[in-house]
Write a structure and sequence with these properties.
This protein has helices spanning 4-9, 22-26, 70-79, 117-120, 148-152, 174-178, 184-188, 201-216; strands at 14-17, 36-38, 54-60, 89-97, 100-108, 127-129, 136-138, 159-161, 166-168, 194-200. It is built from 8 helices and 10 strands. Helix content is 26%, strand content 24%.
Amino acid sequence: MSLPLLERAREGGTAFVLLSNGEDFLRGGTDPASCQIPLANEARIPARLPGEGEQYRFHFDMTECIGCQCCVVACNEQNGNPADIHWRRVGEIDGGSYPDTWRSYLSMGCNHCLEPTCMEGCPVEAFTKDPATGLVLHSEDACIGCQYCTWNCSYGVPQFNAERGVVGKCDMCHGRLAEGREPACVHACPEGAIAIEIVNIAQWIMIFCIYHARKVI
């Protein structure tokens, strides 16, 4: 599915045009070409498929996120979701004390867990974990809308759509990935804060265990 709003905004490879002075521009004193900010076009998806013992996961750089929520809008447009359902969300984290305060943003989608609790709570096995990519996929055709998965998931990822009568969730736009294209949220981010990476599952588990062992100590 195309993203017409984003593609229209990105025509000519330009994200924004900044004008130092509107009057100068009208007089021809400002060259629009000198005011263009080129979009980042570096690869944000792996060049290969996951191998044995690997899977896809989201990589998020909080230092780059500006909280614009383009990822949220792109996700909803891609998946045809109503405005009150967000398979990707952006949260705010504030800290410090006046006058030295700070704010960061956290863009959150599905973690595509190694042991998905949404799968454990589904009585009709509407969830599957793709053995080739590690993505946790959901079948609307199998879903009966019982919402057990929404109670089981610690991150609030599966969300019930009352209009459709079924649950839905982020699937990392696996159809786009299969075509070598970025997921909608990745493609829409103007700062390149979201990317897809391949992770070694054994190393992922080891890092998780070390981190939690240190917390206990």
